[in-house]
Amino acid sequence: MISPHRQTRWPLSASLVLIAGIVALAQEKSSQDALAPATRDARISTAIQQISAERIRANIEKLVSFGTRSTISAQDPASIAARRGIGAAREWIKSEFERYSKDCGGCLEVKTDSFTEPAADRIPQPTEITNVYAVLKGTGAENAKRIVLVTGHYDSRNSDTLNVKDDAPGANDDGSGTAVSLECARVLSKLKFPATIIFLTVAGEEQGLNGSHHFANMAKEQGWNIEAVLNNDIVGGDKSAEQDHSIVRVFSEGIPAAATEQEVRRIRGLGGENDSASRQLARYIDDVGSTYNTGVKPMLVFRLDRYLRGGDHSSFNQQGFTAVRFTEFREDFHHQHQNVRTENGIEYGDLAKFVDYDYVARVARLNAASLASLASAPALPANVHLLTKDLENDSTLTWETSPGSLGYEILWRATTSPEWEHVQKVGNVLRTTLKLSKDNVIFAVRAVDADGHRSLPVVPLPER
Ligand SMILES: [Zn+2]
């Protein structure tokens, strides 16, 4: 455990002895307290190695082959037969999910979520939009109600959001994210998990996040317990000179979009700007990145999204769900939202040849390992509270039982630290007191099962 920094002046010789003592103590303490990556689950390690860059290449090339996947492009039977337009892309994605399901004895339920979007800025006339998804139902009686979800958008665009005539290959944006959802479904459907995993592909992103907006609304209205949403948008690792193929950015919101006035007041008062549930998910993904050999390192970015850009994770955030966005390290804006052409020697357009399929496979491995870890873990501890009735220097935390957990761990860090720094195992109890001042640190509680699977950490609410 760490105590608040204290500075005292000592004579040099005494200082050296003292320093040696402190170093020894710190080393001993750090072995007790320092955070270690989660225990590796051999099933998950094996599963993620089956993610194939070759399969991802075939899937992205197939998506590009539909010419345009603009949400307002053709989707009538003739266009589907001619294999051009969003309707043809939708039917193909559905058939892929169905094929994976056949290979696992019907383990996936393949579904569509269709609705008519009224005319708007980027939608000249009322348009049917269809999200396609596959559900890998959890095996746990209670835990199957918990959902973790991965998504990408299968629609595309070129320079003009209203142009359905010219090609809009959308290999990176977001053929890559669609391929991540598909490949995670193919590989993870061979396993069983206590919690449910949904593999989603949405449309309407480029017209105004319409598909994800509808899906998140539906989930909220129907009371789905979605614990985590991983949105992959532009994870193609565009082969530009300054690309770093070993890093993927993970964006997360700070103050939750769905926070009430009262919640915002509490966040402001207690310094909770850095502790949204989405940010805990980002830190969790970082932990997964240290545990499993994915070949790509998550770089956490503490903001909702990039400048001037948005994405489907924000539709989920707005409904109060925990959601993050994965995006390649460096984007090449010549290869996004552009008509395919060459001007002054510069090639424009989101073409398959700019995608690094090995990179997409690495990002898919990080996604699959995160989904599998979350779906294997016990539920988040419920009603986590920090007792603040009296002025005192100790900190007492309470919580409610999480089904399937063997025990609980308390995490904490300095208020200035971006990531969790310390952990204390507290066993199978629902209350603990630490010799640490709640005024100086941020706490969280997580549940752990017999195999070492960890739930997302939950930051306590103050209770008087
Ligand atoms: Zn996109």
Report how far the terminal alpha carbons are from each other: 26 Å
Q: Which strand order does the major sheet show?
A: 1-2-4-3-5-8-6-7
- Provide the low-confidence segments as ranges: 1-32
Mean pLDDT: 93
Gross geometry: globular
Strand content: 15-25%
Pattern of helices and strands = HHHHHEEEHEHHEEHHEHEEEHEEEEEEE
Largest sheet entry: 8 strands, mixed
Specify Rg, calculated over alpha carbons. Answer: 24 Å
- Bin the helical content: 25-40%
**Helix/strand-derived class?**
alpha/beta
Short structural description:
The chain has 464 residues and is α/β, with parallel strands linked by helices. It has helices at 12-33, 42-49, 53-64, 77-81, 86-103, 171-188, 205-208, 210-221, 261-270, 277-291, 313-318, 357-376; strands at 108-117, 127-136, 146-153, 196-202, 225-232, 247-252, 297-301, 323-328, 341-343, 346-348, 382-387, 395-400, 407-414, 422-427, 431-434, 441-448, 461-463. An eight-stranded mixed β-sheet has the order 1-2-4-3-5-8-6-7, sandwiched between helices. It has a four-stranded mixed β-sheet with strand order 15-12-11-17, with no helix packed on it. A three-stranded antiparallel β-sheet has the order 14-13-16.
